Inverse folding.
């Protein structure tokens, strides 16, 4: 079928009661271009939920008028929605055409029965969100939409599925299964040609054969093609092939895929193309920070690129199916994927969440996820759920088996896991467990991670999770690293994955991953900071019993990402890179001096409040704490060339010093020889505004964006972290400013304003192209000379 973007020409408004509208109480529509996050436009409220970043819920409606030519009469016409949050209902010319309760599934609407040919038609979409999630969801039509037009005899959408069942040295057998529909009243036969091309466009395999489809039926035709000397897909070498399927003169379809093998066992762990690999994993939510939930292809690609640059080789989409745009990026960049189904089954976690629709819809939503993922070589694991309370019950285990076998029936080429929180699995018996002689559980512990680990190793957990884990290929464990070692003896056939772990325990966890063959990786919570679950990773000080999980309004972000919501790496990211063995040079971070000497009582998701800065005006002569991260024998700290000490190194070595402006240097030594150094310099009083785009040229279509980083620096380029001020941005020409924000975790500022205060000296502007030509950006800030830049917009 011919696929064209359906993103333009939409109108939007909060949903209006039709009876109120009859009495004159109406709201006007306004023009929007998809993807669009309706929730991000709402006013946050102090009486709202921290889980959703204090954004209110609501109901929204979209409409679009589009002309359907008379010559399309008799064609099959489908409108495809990649994601509408949530409880979407779709009407075409006033008639109900379909719905989808789950906010993360791609779903088609067969439109042709309701269309009027030779005239304008209207499609209307309603969406609603209210107390239905533990994180910021966004709302509305937040992913791409497509118009699909095809003949009555056609390749069905998503009907080309490619597998590589036999790969060996110098050759690969590729099986292409093509599903064809015949809506005519006659038997139809057509030549089906399957062509495989490499990344350079060279034909490497081709097969042609007739295929016959009975009237009103569908059939699947399979071609087995032989590819010589294949270039295998892996995270280090993400080679992709293109498969073109042609059905006579009736239809064509093109998909990309990769050739690779997967192996899994408790001795060698996970192997890709025969090579052992440990998953350096990042859990991520679906929002794109300052864009909210709006899913642009470039936003997803940039996120994958930056996560890989930070040392990750795998992403777990938490806790819903990944977008097609991000899957495409993972294929191209070389990032392994754990794609997840649901955060709840029949036991709800929020008053109006998907559990209300799960019994009726879960099979269709699994089918949608697998159909989306099947041709993506980056996908290696499916997760059937996250922290499902039912997991520890017999009925829950039976339901889990239904989900697992449904996935396996649809795709037997990947492995299966379930992200089990062992504490939730025995929650109903937790009070009784506390009364038993279970070490650690009776003690009031300072670290929730210790408590969760103590529960994880209990006999009750072992018994209650035995069936749930036995049905999986990989036992997914959330915050249960205490089981890694013992399970090797107790369950010798069990393969384990840390599906969710505390960022503060990465050194401990990674040592276990490297030690045990049956433990295949670790996924930190989280790789990228996100909106909602506000403040779970924020630094807190004072008495332990005053530590809080949720931060008060106006907190906005969770504060626990290796990268903040703008994509800037935080100190924990460099610490992790050193733990992974990917960075030799040390890294310097400095704790905020205003809290010096106060007891730190952050949650296990909270890193220290250190930042990479030696600019602390007003604290001259005050005590200050310096953190040096290094995999070395010794580290030395120098201030203006004067040694502040050379000491045996830990992964994180802490120095106490007195703040003096100047140059701070950390030097790492191994066997007495310097292996690297890191420098921080005090910014001078002169403040300049600097603007830098991620790319000088972008494309006009395909979800491309320009990211412009705005930084306050001194004349030498040192970031001025203590000189924050509002920055104004103006955009003209062939583009528009769609978001302006910072990583400030607690603010009432909006992302859709033209003015935003920097945070730690940085802000981020995001520009969408509106046509080919040139985009001109002008940014200004108080007591700074304005800066201008030009970004070229090319045709695709």
């Amino acid at each position: 079928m011919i696929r064209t973007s359906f993103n333009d020409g939409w109108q939007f408004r909060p949903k209006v009661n039709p009876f109120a509208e009859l009495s004159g109480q109406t709201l006007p529509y306004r023009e929007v271009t998809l993807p669009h996050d309706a929730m991000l436009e709402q006013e946050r409220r102090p009486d709202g939920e921290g889980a959703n970043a204090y954004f209110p819920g609501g109901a929204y409606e979209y409409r679009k008028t589009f002309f359907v030519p008379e010559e399309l009469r008799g064609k099959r016409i489908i409108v495809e929605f990649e994601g509408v949050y949530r409880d979407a209902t779709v009407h075409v010319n006033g008639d109900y055409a379909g719905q989808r309760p789950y906010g993360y599934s791609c779903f088609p609407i067969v439109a042709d029965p309701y269309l009027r040919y030779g005239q304008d038609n209207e499609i209307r979409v309603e969406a609603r969100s209210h107390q239905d999630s533990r994180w910021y969801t966004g709302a509305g039509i937040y992913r791409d939409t497509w118009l699909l037009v095809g003949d009555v005899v056609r390749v069905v959408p998503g009907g080309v599925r490619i597998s590589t069942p036999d790969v060996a040295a110098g050759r690969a057998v590729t099986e292409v299964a093509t599903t064809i529909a015949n809506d005519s009243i006659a038997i139809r036969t057509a030549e089906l040609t399957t062509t495989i091309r490499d990344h350079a466009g060279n034909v490497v395999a081709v097969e042609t054969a007739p295929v016959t489809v009975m009237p009103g039926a569908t059939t699947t035709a399979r071609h087995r093609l032989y590819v010589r000397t294949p270039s295998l897909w892996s995270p280090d070498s993400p080679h992709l092939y293109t498969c073109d399927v042609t059905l006579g003169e009736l239809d064509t379809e093109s998909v990309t895929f990769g050739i690779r093998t997967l192996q899994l066992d408790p001795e060698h762990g996970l192997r890709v193309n025969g090579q052992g690999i440990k998953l350096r994993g990042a859990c991520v939510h679906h929002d794109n920070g300052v864009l909210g939930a709006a899913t642009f292809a470039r936003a997803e690609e940039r996120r994958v690129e930056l996560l890989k640059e930070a040392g990750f080789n795998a992403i777990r989409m938490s806790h819903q199916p990944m977008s097609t745009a991000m899957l495409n990026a993972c294929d191209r960049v070389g990032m392994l994927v754990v794609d997840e189904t649901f955060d709840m089954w029949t036991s709800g976690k929020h008053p109006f969440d998907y559990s209300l629709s799960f019994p009726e819809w879960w099979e269709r939503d699994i089918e949608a996820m697998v159909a989306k993922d099947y041709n993506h070589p980056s996908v290696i694991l499916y997760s059937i759920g996250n922290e499902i309370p039912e997991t520890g019950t017999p009925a829950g285990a039976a339901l889990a088996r239904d989900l697992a076998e449904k996935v396996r029936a649809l795709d037997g080429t990947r492995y299966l896991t379930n992200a089990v929180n062992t504490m939730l699995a025995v929650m109903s018996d937790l009070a009784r467990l506390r009364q038993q002689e279970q070490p650690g559980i009776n003690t009031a512990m300072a670290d929730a991670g210790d408590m969760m680990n103590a529960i994880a190793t209990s006999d009750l957990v072992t018994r209650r999770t035995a069936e749930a884990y036995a049905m999986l290929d990989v036992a997914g464990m959330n915050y249960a690293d205490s089981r890694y070692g013992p399970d090797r003896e107790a369950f010798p056939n069990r393969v384990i994955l840390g599906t969710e772990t505390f960022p503060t325990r990465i050194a401990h966890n990674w040592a276990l991953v490297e030690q045990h063959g049956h433990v295949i990786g670790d996924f930190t919570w989280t790789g990228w900071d996100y909106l909602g679950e506000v403040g779970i990773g924020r630094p807190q000080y004072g008495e332990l019993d005053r530590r809080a999980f949720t931060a008060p309004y106006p907190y906005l972000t969770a504060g626990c990402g290796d990268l903040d919501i703008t994509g800037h790496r935080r100190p924990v990211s460099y610490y992790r890179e050193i733990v992974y063995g990917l960075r030799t040079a040390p890294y310097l971070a400095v704790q905020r001096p205003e809290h010096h000497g106060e007891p730190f009582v952050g949650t296990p998701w909270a890193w220290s409040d250190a930042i990479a800065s030696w600019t602390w005006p007003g604290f001259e002569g005050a005590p200050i704490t310096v953190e040096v991260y290094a995999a070395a024998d010794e580290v030395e700290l120098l201030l203006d060339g004067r040694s502040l000490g050379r000491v045996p190194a830990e992964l994180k070595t802490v120095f106490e010093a007195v703040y003096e402006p100047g140059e701070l240097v950390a030097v790492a030594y191994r066997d007495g020889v310097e292996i690297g150094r890191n420098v921080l310099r005090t910014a001078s009083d002169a403040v300049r505004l600097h603007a830098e785009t991620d790319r000088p040229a972008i494309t006009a279509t395909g979800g491309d964006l320009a990211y412009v980083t705005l930084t306050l620096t001194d004349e030498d380029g040192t970031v001025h972290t203590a000189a924050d001020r509002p920055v104004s941005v103006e955009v003209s020409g062939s583009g528009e400013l769609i978001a302006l924000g910072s990583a400030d975790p607690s603010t009432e500022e909006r992302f859709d304003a033209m003015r935003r205060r920097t945070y730690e000296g940085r802000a981020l502007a995001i520009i969408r192209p509106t046509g080919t030509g040139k985009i001109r950006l002008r940014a200004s800030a108080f007591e700074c000379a304005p800066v201008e830049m030009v970004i070229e917009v090319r045709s695709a």
